[in-house]
Structure formats: structure tokens, C-alpha cells
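ESCALATION

Customer reports they have been waiting on this structure for their group meeting. Please prioritize. Original submission:
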Amino acid sequence: MSTRIARRPSAMRKAPKQARSRATVEIILQAGARVLSDEGWAGFTTNKVAELAGVSIGSLYQYFPDKLSLVDAIRHRHLDDCIAVMRGVGADGASPAAFAGELVRAMIAAHSGCPGLHRVLLDEAPSSDAYRDPHSDFEVAYLARYAEVVAAFRCRPPGPADHVAARVISDAMDGVIHNAARRGAIDDPVLQTELTRLISLYLTDVRQSMIAHPQP
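Update from on-call: job pushed to the front of the queue and completed.
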């Protein structure tokens, strides 16, 4: 399992402000993700990342003081991608099957750019307690979006029961996808079909339960 270290995530040395600087950081993050995916944590070095990114090691260190800060930034990027997926897949007017299919496809795509990356992030690379905080800003926003989806299928504002259902769906989605990443099976079409069916059936039951037992 990944090493836990009791510290806050390393901050970038400086935030990129100009378009050229932002492009450089983007290239570094993409290269870092590729090196982690291909080499694992044991083979991950800032020199390899800089070489693959086509930048000097000094340019890399302008933004990332060490490789832990770079891994933190790669993790942040992944969490941002997951939030973007949740916000981009709409439930209004969609059937449970259509919503589940779009969500599963988009979430798998967010994990498929570097096939080995998420196994390394989950099992090898050091992580801080902040990433395991159940009350982090990411967790709150992520689960709130799932609760909004459940509530939409129940035709009501989100309530406590919807937040419980949100945790069920989130844990199912993350568990299946993360374990598929560990097994190198993230692109298995059968897995995508079965996960879609699982989420779809759950949301269908959510909707039917609301019809059968409407709230006063």
C-alpha cells in the first residue's frame, strides 16, 4: 500500500501566471504522470520527468521543489479531472441507464490516460493524511455532486438519505475503477458494461422507490 506521511501536501514553489508558464507546468505534469505510469515510484525522478518534458531540471524546480510536490500536483490534477467529470455529466432529463453509461465512460476515460498511473498513486507513491481526509474539500464536493444526482432522480432537493446513497454509488464507482487500474484492466469493455449496469440498476431502484414511497 502507499506510504502515509503525516504532512500537508507540498506546495508548488510558485504558481504559473503567464500562458507560457502554465504551458510549461502542464507539460511537466503530463511527463510526470507518464514516468510514474511507466517506471513506478521506484523509478520516478525529477531528472527523468524533466528529460521527458523537454525542459531543464532548473525549470522544473522553479515550480516543484521536490518530487513529492510533483506527485501531489499530479494527484490534484486527477482529483480535478474527477470533479470535472461529475459536473459535466448531467442527470436532468436522462434515464438512469443513459446517465450511468455516460458517467462510467467519462470516469474510466479520466483514469485511462496513463494506464499504470493510478496503481502507482494508490499503492506505491507516498501520500499525505490530507488526501485521506473524509471531510476534505474534494470529498465534500465530490459526494455533494453524487447526492445531487440521486436527488434529481428522486425529484427533490438533496437530503440525508440522498447523501447516503451518494456514498454507495461513489464507493462502488471508485472501488471498481481503482481495482481495475491495479489489475491493468481499466480498458476492459465488459467491466465498463457491468459497472454501467450496476449504477443504472441502483439509480433505477432509487427512482422507483421514490415513486412507490413519495414523501409528503
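Sent to customer with the following note: The chain has two domains: 12-65, 74-216.
Escalation resolved.
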